């Protein structure tokens, strides 16, 4: 589409489709044509999967320019995609990415290795020269400052990167994107969540008998259509199975209400995260003898996060805002989807199972129909290639271990075309694994800020300027959130709700961070 707008005469081949279709198209990949009196070859556009399938075909030519959008897809040099693309013959190479450093310096080396394999040929040497573990631990600020003062590791690393890295911020090109503010919302645990959480830590889960009341099957809609049903649990970490040695058996209740739950504790942190999101992810409240979820007030009352979400959505809708809701678990989106139906909220949903045509349709509908209040997205599937500027509010229901995944998610609406300030709510249950995930993500962002720091890597910038220690101290101590709101018990006060909803100071400013 962009070639049609900006360079309509340049020949372009969209190389994708079935194997048979690509086989026919391959005959024209090197077909020449005349443009302004010169002989030119076409530009080849393709997806990340095609080079893996058609390596033999695409590795034959010597490409004048090899451009990889979303360059962080080859951050792991051991993947087949990184190996295949790295093996292509090319005169020039270009990586485009908003996140060159996500988790560690090894990923940065992988990108540099793709660009210049002769120069960045050894990961071991790179990691020996540049060690930055201290940057990932908040308590080591002074140690990091002292090390930088003695060895200038960050300064040296930036000198190495400067010839190969050009960084453009939104503010550098005056995109006039409205401001963005992030609020960290401390969510409480309900009684059942607290008991389940403690039980998993003690390896003795107790399940309330009220989750197992006999109830009549919920009827269909009056028009004969089926109500949405909660998908059958298929997660390997939690399941009702015959007892064996691989599963921890934990009991809940007494007498006739005693119940055994078999929990695979090889990944207890996954179990804990699910409990914090919603106890239904551990054991849903279903109709007796079925896998059909009961949809009633307990869907909000049994989860602290859902209680906050319920109150927040009601207030946001009343004020005319529209919302994107992200979760790393599609099963959690299932539960939120049931809640949306219960509240009669118009919404759309996108996850890894949504095909391309449906994605386009849902995006178009959301951006053009103001009556669609919310869009539910899985963090990884909805974090790239999605434009949802019709929303002005983002809710991160649970954080990703990789902070860049959440940042990419926020940018679905905080991007070119956005006309309103954007408010981001990040839910977190304090003093739990939830807080550990948020803190770990903040530590990873510290590393990014130190290495790919603000103000560096612009065109014409010097590579020999030493990083001021006071500036380094400010970056190390910089908070990731504009505001934190902590509930009083299990509810928010009116003052706290107003603080959550406050957008003052955002309307007249452009984002400068």
Automatic annotation (TrEMBL):
Q: Which domain of life is it from?
A: Eukaryota
Q: Where are the transmembrane segments?
A: none
Q: By its UniProt entry, which InterPro entries does this protein fall under? A: Helicase_ATP-bd, Helicase_C-like, P-loop_NTPase, SNF2-like_sf, SNF2/RAD54-like_C, SNF2_N
Question: Among its keywords, does the record have ATP-binding?
Answer: yes
Query: By what name is this protein known?
Result: Lymphoid-specific helicase
Keywords (alphabetical) are:
ATP-binding, Helicase, Hydrolase, Nucleotide-binding
* Entry GO CC: nucleus; pericentric heterochromatin
GO terms for biological process, alphabetical? DNA methylation-dependent constitutive heterochromatin formation; negative regulation of gene expression via chromosomal CpG island methylation; pericentric heterochromatin formation
| Organism, scientific name | Lygus hesperus (Western plant bug)
A Pfam match is SNF2-rel_dom
Q: Which residues form the Helicase ATP-binding domain?
A: 1-118
Q: Which PANTHER family would you find in this protein's record?
A: LYMPHOID-SPECIFIC HELICASE
Gene Ontology molecular-function annotations: ATP binding; chromatin binding; helicase activity; hydrolase activity
SMART domains xrefs: HELICc
- Tell me the gene name: HELLS
Span of domain Helicase C-terminal: 308-473
């Amino acid at each position: 589409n962009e070639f049609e707008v900006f360079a309509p005469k340049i020949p372009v081949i969209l190389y994708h489709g079935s194997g048979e279709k690509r086989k026919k198209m391959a005959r024209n990949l090197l077909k020449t044509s005349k443009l302004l009196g010169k002989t030119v070859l076409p530009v080849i556009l393709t997806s990340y999967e095609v080079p893996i399938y058609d390596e033999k075909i695409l590795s034959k030519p010597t490409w004048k320019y090899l451009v990889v959008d979303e360059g962080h897809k080859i951050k792991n040099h051991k993947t087949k995609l990184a190996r295949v693309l790295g093996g292509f013959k090319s005169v020039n190479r270009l990586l485009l990415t908003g996140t060159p450093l996500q988790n560690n310096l090894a990923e940065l080396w992988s990108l540099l290795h793709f660009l210049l394999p002769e120069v960045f040929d050894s990961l071991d040497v790179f990691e020996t020269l540049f060690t930055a573990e201290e940057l990932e631990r908040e308590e080591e600020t002074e140690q990091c400052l002292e090390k930088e003062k003695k060895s200038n590791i960050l300064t040296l690393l930036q000198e190495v990167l400067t010839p190969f890295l050009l960084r453009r911020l939104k503010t550098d090109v005056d995109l006039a994107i409205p401001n963005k503010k992030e609020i960290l919302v401390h969510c409480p645990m309900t009684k059942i969540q607290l008991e389940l959480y403690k039980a998993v830590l003690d390896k003795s889960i107790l399940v309330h008998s009220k989750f197992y009341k006999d109830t009549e099957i919920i009827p269909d809609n009056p028009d004969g259509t089926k109500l949405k049903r909660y998908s059958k649990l298929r997660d390997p970490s939690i399941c009702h199975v015959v007892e064996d040695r691989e599963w921890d058996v934990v009991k809940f209740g007494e007498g006739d209400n005693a119940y055994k739950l078999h929990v695979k504790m090889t990944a207890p942190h996954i179990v804990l995260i699910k409990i914090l999101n919603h106890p239904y992810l551990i054991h849903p409240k279903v109709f007796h003898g079925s896998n059909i979820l009961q949809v009633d007030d307990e869907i909000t009352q049994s989860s602290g996060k859902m209680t906050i979400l319920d109150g927040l959505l009601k207030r946001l809708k009343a004020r005319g805002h529209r919302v994107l809701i992200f979760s790393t678990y599609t099963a959690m989106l299932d539960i939120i989807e049931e809640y949306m139906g219960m509240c009669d909220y118009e919404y759309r949903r996108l996850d890894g199972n949504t095909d391309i045509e449906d994605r386009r349709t849902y995006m178009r509908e959301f951006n053009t129909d103001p009556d669609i209040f919310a869009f539910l997205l899985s963090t990884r599937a909805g974090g790239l290639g999605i434009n949802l500027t019709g929303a002005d509010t983002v809710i991160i229901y649970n954080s990703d271990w990789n902070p860049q995944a959440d940042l990419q998610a926020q940018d679905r609406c905080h991007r070119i075309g956005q006309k309103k300030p954007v408010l981001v709510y990040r839910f977190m249950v304090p003093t739990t694994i939830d807080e550990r995930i948020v803190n770990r993500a903040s530590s990873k962002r510290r590393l990014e800020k130190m290495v790919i720091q603000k103000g560096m890597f612009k065109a014409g910038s010097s590579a020999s300027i030493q990083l001021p220690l006071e500036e380094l101290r400010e970056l190390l101590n910089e908070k990731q959130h504009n505001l934190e709101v902590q509930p009083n018990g299990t509810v928010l006060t009116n003052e706290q709700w107003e603080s959550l909803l406050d957008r003052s100071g955002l309307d007249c400013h452009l984002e400068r961070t």
